[in-house]
From TrEMBL:
Keywords: ATP-binding, Kinase, Nucleotide-binding, Serine/threonine-protein kinase, Transferase. One of its GO terms (molecular function) is ATP binding. InterPro entries: Kinase-like_dom_sf, MAPK, Prot_kinase_dom, Tyr_kinase_AS, Tyr_kinase_cat_dom. This is Protein kinase domain-containing protein. Gene3D superfamilies: Phosphorylase Kinase, domain 1 (3.30.200.20), Transferase(Phosphotransferase) domain 1 (1.10.510.10). It comes from Aegilops tauschii subsp. strangulata.
Length: 298
């Protein structure tokens, strides 16, 4: 069955019926809501047009499908279905059916919706709960940011977009470009070729700070500026915090940067509860081996 949604052709199986309405546009394609005629459940259908034209995008799509097929957790988005084309020779567009969520954390933080400390704690709890599950499956998400944390009207949160995720057993995954810069851990900014689940914990710290202030914590213009913003808040690392850097050049570079003392988090985040602030300080640690783990945080 074909539908025209704002000039985009949606070709889905008869199982999915109107009302069909656009609900968003992701990096890969347009997303529409539709109704599953069998269950009467509203779902989100993502169309990835010409999915096989670009090898990198095709790999992202395949990776997300492969990983999410095996995941089943309240705080991780679930794939309901993949709509197959009527004929294999016409297989150009991929349609993935997800559970429908109402918004994402990025849109919520940019809105005028007031958020209490209870909201903040509940969002954080759900992110860490979902992440603990993902990490227990030996998977790193590698692209945690507010727009990838999906929400519904009941404030239930689910981690989405696993297009950059990797299992820790993959050997080629360490060197690729990962994580939107603002949420990128110091070890990634310094081109550390071996990294761990601690990169996701750093991203959660950045998100926690953003929930508290409604503004990105480290909105760097480039990676040098990014490192400066980080050290201005958490202080410049001493030599004992640089042991994770294998490269002498990287260590020399960090030592050559302007030195900053650690800011008082109480002044920077006056509305944050003591418990949340303590957790934030243990997440935003320069040395990944000293960063709190997902198990302890959750």
């Amino acid at each position: 069955v074909q539908y025209n949604v704002y000039g985009n052709l949606f070709e889905v199986s008869a199982k999915y019926v109107p009302p069909i309405r656009p609900v968003g546009r992701g990096a890969c394609g347009i997303i529409c809501a539709a109704v599953n005629a069998q269950t009467r459940e509203e779902v989100a259908i993502k169309k990835i047009g010409n999915a096989f034209d670009n090898q990198i995008d095709a790999k992202r799509t395949l990776r997300e499908v492969k990983l999410l097929r095996h995941m089943n957790h309240e705080n991780v988005i679930s794939i309901k279905d993949i709509i197959r084309p009527p004929r294999r020779e016409n297989f150009n567009d991929v349609y993935i059916v997800y559970e429908l969520m109402d918004t994402d954390l990025h849109h919520l933080l940019r809105s005028n919706q007031p958020l209490t400390d209870d909201h903040c704690q509940y969002f954080l709890y759900q992110v860490l709960r979902g992440l603990k599950y993902v990490h227990s499956a030996k998977v790193l998400h590698r692209d945690l940011r507010p727009s990838n944390l999906l929400l519904n009207a009941k404030c239930e949160l689910k981690i989405g977009d696993f297009g950059l995720a990797r299992t820790t057993t993959e050997t080629d995954f360490m060197m690729e470009y990962v994580v939107t810069r603002w949420y990128r851990a110091p070890e990634l900014l310094l081109n550390c070729s071996e990294y761990t689940a601690a990169i996701d914990i750093w991203s959660v710290g950045c998100i926690l700070g953003e929930i508290a202030t409604r503004e990105p914590l480290f909105p760097g213009k480039d990676y040098v500026h990014q490192l400066r913003l980080i050290t201005e808040l958490i202080g410049s690392p001493d030599d004992t915090s640089l042991g994770f850097l294998r490269s002498d050049n990287a260590r020399r570079y960090v030592r050559s940067l302007p030195q900053y003392p650690k800011q008082h988090f109480g002044s920077r985040f006056p509305s944050m509860s003591t418990g949340a602030m303590d957790l934030l300080e243990r997440m935003l640690v320069f040395d990944p081996s000293k960063r709190i783990t997902g198990n302890l945080a959750a």
